[in-house]
What does this fold into?
Amino acid sequence: MAKTVTDVTCPFCGSLCDDIEVQVSDDGTKVLEVFNACAIGAAKFLHTAAKDRVTRPRMRQEDGSYKEVSYDEAIEYTAHMFVNSKKPLMYGWSNTNCEAQSVGHEIAEATGGIVDNTATVCHGPSLIAIQDVGIPSCTLGEIKNRADVVLFWGCNPAHAHPRHLSKYSIFPRGFFTGKGHKGRKMIVVDPRNTDTMKLADVPLQLEQGRDYELLSAFRVAIRGEELPEKVAGIPREKIYEAVEVMKNGRFGVIFFGMGVTQSLGKNHNIDNAIMVTKDMNEYTKFAIIAMRGHYNVTGSGQVMGWQWGFPFATDLSRGFARYNPGETTSNDLLRRREVDAIMVFASDPGSHFPISSVREIAKIPSVAVVPDINPTTEISKLHVPVAVNAIETGGCCYRMDNVPIDARKVVEPPEGMLTDLEFLTRVRDRIAELKAQAPAGVRASAEAVGA
Amino acid sequence: MAEYLIRNGFVFDPVSGVNGDRKDIAVKDGKIVESVSPSAKVFDAAGKTVMAGAVEIHAHIAGPKVNEGRNYRPEDKLFNAASGVGGMRTTGGFSIPTTFKTGYNYAKMGYTTAIEAAMPPLYARHVHEEIRDTPIIDEGALPVFGNNWFVLEYLKNRELENTAAYISWLLRASKGYGVKVVNPGGTEAWGWGLNCLTVNDPVPYFDITPAQIVRGLIEANEYLGLPHSMHIHANNLGNPGNYTTTLDTFRLAEGFKANNRFGREQTMHHTHVQFHSYGGDTWGNFESKSDEIIDYVNTHPNLTIDTGNVTLDETTTMTADGPFEHHLTELNHLKWANVDVELETAAGIVPYVYSPDIKVCAIQWAIGLELGLLAKDPMRCFITTDHPNAGPFTRYPRIIKWLMSKEAREERLNTFKHAEKVIGATLLHGIDREITFYELAQMTRAGPAKALGLKDVYGGLAPGMEADIAVYDINPESPFTPDQLEEAFSAAALVIKTGLPVVENGVVINNGNKRTLWVDAKVNENPQVMRDVEEKFLKYYSVTLNNYEVQGHHYIPNPYAIQVDATQ
Amino acid sequence: METVTLTIKKAPTLYLEAEIISPDGLAGKTADQIRALPVHMGNEEFTLGEFFDLAGAPGATAEETKVVVTGDLSRVKYLGMKMSGGEMVIESDADMYVGAWMSGGTLTAKGNVDSFAGIGMKGGLLEINGNAGNYTGSAYRGDWRGMQGGKIHVKGNVRSDTGYFMNGGEIVIDGDADVHVGTHAEGGKIVIKGNAKSRLGGQMVEGTIILLGTVDVMMPGFKYVRDEEVDVDGKNMLMSLYVGDLGERHRKRKGEPIYGKLYIRKAAPAAAESREVRLARAREARKARFASPEETASA
It folds into this structure.
């Protein structure tokens, strides 16, 4: 008789669905079946039972092959890498819990590290925009209960956040939205005719890279000023029409994704989208929400925020926290050869970073702490496989709307495998021992820059 | 555990009625005791001032909006960050310091307990994660109830027991300390971009008024016998002429009697009253109405207040009063963050510069001080800055200076750009009172502790109480300048927290043994409320019921649960 | 005025942070005191003397001090940061934050400088003979108070985000500017003598941008009002005045809104060129990218 674990959080996307039910084997070691999850989420659960999982650390040898080593050896290597580094980069953090993020921060303070999360190649520009102009937002439940105008800009939830439309934004019937999707107007702006756009009442297929101009045009239209005939390939009549739909709503929301955060202008696109939202609040209620990618990238920004005051890209090399994307962001650091060691934690820059950064990772001392083999592990000196977070261990995670949820452990990790929190805690303690033996390390002065 | 003796200081302790006598204070096992053994470690406090650790009754120091404030203001940390030395953590920020800096800065000033003033229940885990990472100080958080759909529905139907049972359930689920109300009804109206500006404005759809919400929550609070009273931020905050709304709100507490076993006497605590004491009807004829406000407070012992003193700094305003922050960003055009929280509340954030060159800011500054100086009973009027709204809590020493020295505040008043107009619109110039050390201990220690239902635990130096002690390098019997006063209260000579020295010579030396306060109020089983809870989670919340309650383990590693039994 | 010359003698393995190198940082100090000043590389602190040879001596105050820095400074950050007076010359290329938060004096960088030159500037003159990076004369992250005063003169090109949140002062670019010039500006003046890319003056509230070259895509929130004579380097030029950004808030004076002003010498091309033309150019650009392996900076 298999048992079922309910109210499980899904460790895939930023929707952080928490209504998953998972059937596990009697001995609590194997995921058998997954209910309520989308195809991607279910695959992630089921993958934990894969036979080809690596369960022990692997060290790269001179000849490029990998040799299995013990966790103790891996901890020793990692601790020495940190202690010997003048400026270690600690990148990732989006697929782990807040407890591990917090221990990582202790290591950064002790060794003068730079902590950057995957927002750096995802919603980092959104975070910069929020710093420039704020963000009027709300929780996903507010959308479900109140929203009657829903705008998706540069995102394709039908594929990237598969349950978003049904659970939060378009289809659910909430307290004031008893008609479900029939009571909602859906506007979609994208250069591609995506599957999300196919559902839209108002589809706006704009020219690629002209989101900023179109957002500005929305603002001009909101103020009732005159527009040029066409903006971003969209006739002005259609822009006025879309704005009219927005103004006539009782509660509107803009969801935006990487189509705007990572195209020309980056943070400026989000900035302008936020300003559209702010302008709309003079006419009706409007909110804006970033479609955050990984399930706990938001949490990394939160923990960094309360501990250091910045949501990503925080440089502790001089002991105190500094932040300036363009300088302290992972790709700038790697491209400019500004760091001399890297720990990749719970992420895969090998897949997501530009080739110049990936080449640099391959050159410097590197440790990848991730459950499975991925392109990053294959260029790292050391791969430390760990239990899969939110499946084989619990911990606090933050949803895309910053709502914290305590992830449940569903099954035991394979025999003898450490969680990333356990591994990191032992690295932290080993670093403390090494530093006590040879007290050099951070010679920080609180006087100068940033102090 | 270690023993300590703080010898020969000038002790100010309203709890034991000690007013500046030279006394020894003995500490053993984390408590104040009558005497200690000769092996106790001795601190010489001769020529210094000794008080209990101070108690912060209202500050925004942990949780989602505080952190949004941090994350969206990198400029608040620019050239204002420092590395951790000697086992301490790295720190940063001015108006919204990091959690580590928050704990250290409170401790440095001799504060040992603080209440986070507004916890959105859905974000309770976040609040508790930050509380956990705020070193040294004991901390509790007040969940917000004044716009909660359960509360609105129960009170519309006048269901007192259900309201109380729901409060009990939510305090346990969120590990909260008491009943906070922010802009009752107005924040729910903000869900549609609207507001409730008087106590009689109906809440859209819910067909209830702020007055009914406030009276209902006072009644439920006393039904449960919670340690703290209903704690309110009234409607119409920050607007010229709002003092009438404030008086209307005060009157809502009439007719209720405090019912609790904690020695609390008030049935309403009204917070940051400075923001609610405005006359005039435009920013042009804006003026102080602190006299009308304080007259009511002075004659109604069922009421306690805190001041919300403007410190004249650049700061970051943040409140669950969503519509107010929208109003503010329309005025100053600075970056606006807002979060509406399903079924529960909202919050907004806007940076603000209280410039001494702006008349309104200077009038606000004066009003806050007037409240502190005109209050006849310092046991019912507490010093706050509504951190960070009227200014950062790190400015308490400066406010103390202004309250304790007419010379200091006259100097400030007379050098405002619009000094004459400010004097004309306020009462401050005509007030000679200077707060005494004893009164200061009432306003920052004994008073807030009593109002929180913690009078036997915190805020005093009587044997049996927590050994939370602050020693300041100022001799109350020798002459001192106002600036020396500010300096002394900025960096305590010694702070002991629950029997552990955490600050010496103005430097934080230990991360302490902080606890999280929460109130475990037991009520009789209430199947209807549980059915309602299940239904709302199934239909309207975006998380499941089983993922709502804050569990102890990593969120509250060191709890201090106060038991309340309302099953009778 | 006394001159002190610092010559870098070894290349930093990472980047060197040397905010102490400014007239303010060196004034009034003896040679030994200067050599003992701190510079930073990663988590390590070094003395200035470990990296630089010293010649000459500073004056008693910043105003009486000229600092000359020579050698390969392309991996040195924060040169001339927060300088308030005196003179400073950087003889070669320099890295980020040249003249950041400076409030007075004259700082000349003879080579190229990287990003964040003159951010948060309040006064003084910053001259860059080569090219400048992103965020020249901009605000620090999150601050709505960008450049307040002073002048930045870039003789080469600038990358994106020049004069972001500019409130006052003047920026002159002899070459071309990448996207987002004067975004969120509420004052000040920017002159671009070369060409500009799109988003010129986007979200501009007040202030002036003068463009002598062309812009590829105009912002939809700028409208043509009239032709005006504009003084550029003492010459009067007839230019087209556009006002905007119409999507932004604008305060009013005597009932009339005050807009940001955008002067363009030649009438801008039609709001958008054809999709085909742009796609063809994108294909060319992609080919060019594959030819060179370097990516552009993120964020």
